[in-house]
Amino acid sequence: MRPPPAVAVVGAGWAGLSAALALAEAGLRVTVFESAPQAGGRARSITLATPLGPIAIDNGQHLIVGAYRETLDLLARLGAGPLLQRHRLHLVSTRGLSLRAAPLPAPLHLAWGLLRADGLAWGERAAMLRMMRALRRARWEVLADETVAALLARLRQPASLVETLWAPLCVGALNTLPAQACARSFAAVLRDTLGAARGASDFVAPDVPLGALLPDRGLARLRALGATIRLRSTVRKLRPSSSGWRVDADESPFAALLLALPPWSAAAPLERLGVDLAALRAFVPEPIATAWALWPAGEAPPLARWLMLDEDPTRRRFGQWVFDRGVIGAARVAGVVVSAASRIEDNPVEVLAEGVAAQLRDAFGAPAPSAIRVVTERRATFRCTPGLPRPACDHYAREAPGLWLAGDWTWPDYPATIEAAVRSGQRAAAGIIASLGVAPADQGLHAAADPT
């Protein structure tokens, strides 16, 4: 009996892992190559050295929402569902905004929440409803090459509402300032959260670092399915052959090859193949900084579970959101997110930490954090601007048959999110499975996915 086809997956981020799991569950022989010592890519766990001892935390504060249906489904199949806590949408800010979705069917949940919201004038509430109605009537389509700032102006959103609500949501979701951000992607975010079923706008908070969700459990499941995992393995050379693809010095060819990498990383091994890289080189990386604030456990001021902060670059206060992560080890930990962080690259880390400490003091009072550790993911996302090409997973089908792509940047209308990564990996895996003539995976495999 002939062995099943072998497939190489390069990259063990959320796109690569979701693809590898689907391929392995379909019975294919999967080998995963990852250059880092751990899986997770740009949404992974790290350990911070702090004055309060080592802290296991994430490389940045990531947000999962109810609209991430494929991500949540995958985590449930891996047995990580109990590690996630759902919270009904509550947008609250230091400017006095408090908008809580009501426990009603959509769209009443948002309308009722607006009626009872604090911190919004009646004209601002009417403008928000007007914008959502206009987008819904337009089937969430916007003008060609429109920016978020232009969209908000066209739909007559007051400057006060933009500053209080729309701009923080745009920067938080797209990691791009409204004047440059893609209105199409912003509309897609609104469509699938505020404009969808009530639960789609829920905030989903993990009780553990990200590594304990998909990366660790995904690797365990892959190993149980017989997959080969090669961490600390940077792929430098790809070679097409009559029988498939060869990766670096591997003797055995792979029937299909999936590059589940950011576009700037995927371009490097592809350059030697002589394929057109224009679609990949159109993407520009954008950093995100997370300032992890720490207090001795029991000594922190009362913290909100999450809060939109009053950003003021003129006073070097760059944080937009803060999330309470609870007690980790001997520390109470909160993460302050600084999106579109290319703006602050010239500021020393100490300046950023001082600004974050001031924002936390203004929001919650004393005492000040005992320490602040700033973690900057320099290529956290792509800059989500209008007109970016979104290559399909089989973008190179003609130039390089058997070569596939996955990653958040390949999903048609989303910004760089965990959900876009998971969906892209699953879409690429489905394409590979179909191209190799393999029967769909037995759903019974999904039901027994808890590696613990």
How would you characterize the overall build of this protein?
There is one protein chain. The protein is an alpha+beta fold and 452 residues long. The protein is 31% helix and 21% strand. It is built from 13 helices and 19 strands. The chain has helices spanning 14-25, 69-77, 108-115, 122-137, 148-154, 159-174, 183-192, 214-224, 263-271, 278-281, 349-364, 418-435, 443-447, and strands at residues 6-10, 29-33, 45-48, 55-58, 64-65, 84-87, 90-92, 98-100, 203-206, 228-230, 238-241, 244-247, 256-260, 285-296, 306-308, 321-328, 331-338, 371-382, 403-406. The strands form 6 sheets. A 5-stranded parallel beta sheet has the order 10-2-1-13-19, covered by helices on one side. A hairpin with a 2-residue loop joins strand 11 (238-241) and strand 12.
